[in-house]
TrEMBL record:
Its EC number is 3.2.1.55. InterPro entries: Alpha-L-AF_C (IPR010720), ASD1_cat (IPR055235), GH (IPR017853), Glyco_hydro_b (IPR013780). Belongs to the glycosyl hydrolase 51 family. Residues 290-494 form the Alpha-L-arabinofuranosidase C-terminal domain. This is non-reducing end alpha-L-arabinofuranosidase.
Amino acid sequence: LRAHVALNPAAVVAPVNRRTFGSFVEHMGRCVYTGIYEPGHPSADEDGFRTDVLALARELGVSMVRYPGGNFVSGYRWEDGVGPREQRPRRRDLAWRSIETNEVGIDEFAKWAEKAGVEIMYAVNLGTRGVQEALDVHEYINHPEGTALSERRRANGAEKPYGVKIWCLGNELDGPWQTGHKTAEEYGLLAASTARALRSAEPDLELVACGSSSSSMPTFGAWESTVLEHAYDVVDYVSCHAYYEEHDGDLGSFLASAVDMDHFVNSIVATADAVGARLKSTKKINLSFDEWNVWYLSRFQNAPLPSEWGVAPRVIEDQYNVADAVVVGNLLISLLRHSDRVTAACQAQLVNVIAPIMTEPGGPAWRQTIFHPFARTAALAKGDVLETRIDSPTYETARHGEAALIDAVATHDEATGEVTVFVVNRSQSEPVELAVDLTAFGTGLTVAESVTLTDDDVRASNTRDEPDRVTLRPTAGGVATDGTTVTLSLPPVSWTAL
Ligand code: AHR
């Protein structure tokens, strides 16, 4: 089998947005407690943060982290998590049926974010709360000084405001499972009035309205349309959430999950632009794909939440395999391809909960298979995203119809002259010979590096005992070039960065 990719430095989609490489820390399961935070752990620093996890978060190349939820945020009282620790209340978290100790709140998370070198994306509670509480938490986080809540922050040790720029107006309020679930009409009005109030406090905030929780929601598209009819002028983004898994052993469909992501993005861009046209607006609403990943959601849905109200229970700690990593690499290809409109994204989540980083309490931290395509894409995608013309054989899938065997995206860094191609082979049995035509870049090109994630066993995983079973290795067979075209062989079920 053969495939062909042609690239041209003049055919630019958009600059690579660093915010494409966002992640997500929710107060859920062991993401915060025994994830990023574990005082008493041998690697814990003076603030109780695991430095092994911090080092892995930096290596992952995460640029921005959404906090504190997720479904959790829709019942959260932010003020529970500030001030002296011994006075902080323990509360029920209805979303995940667990106990929130509030040992970590915004002040601690801001410290962690600074150490990790990431931007904070903050989500306010629009489930059980409204405009006033959103204004309050904004005053605490961003107001410089001289008001009740900014002085409270200063008294709690943070003299300077945190300067959080990007704010989510609630979480998944289209979902009946969400505490405080709303109709599109109700949410659209609330999102618009919250956005207006926040803008009165700080005009240049970037505000994200909730879009659909998945493309299979019955209100998909209609929800965004109604919400944006109300909030178009006062928000900058609409969110998208999508989780993928292999259903009933249908690996072929699963490997083509990015087809659904492409469809999701194209549909919501079209919907947002249609609202803009109706409103005679020249403004464009961008997409914040602020929850995406592989998640074996059906396993979670078939197993009830724990009956005991515990602290930091083990919830959705999916162990990822080679196929999952190939899909994650492909989802990043899709996000990059849409860099003109998807200008923020968060892989959900960062640690333990459907995460690239796993930890054991008191024990080690390790990289799941999905860590590798994320880290390498974040490191290598620089400069501009190029239009990537792909000529590929196809295959039939039950869920997505006819899908290309090869999917790819390329970036070009004009400053260094480097071109990177990210490419997956979705075939389960055949290698594909790929030719990348770089004639438009001139002659004399050399190949700096080509690494591939693949394995004879597509179900192979990394575990505590074997943390490096699946990793990136030099592309087998090497890469040939005549100075203008590069050729290589892509093994079945593989992700490659060239
Ligand atoms: O990331 C796990 C959960 O998935 C989040 O809390 C929620 O927003 C989504 O349904």
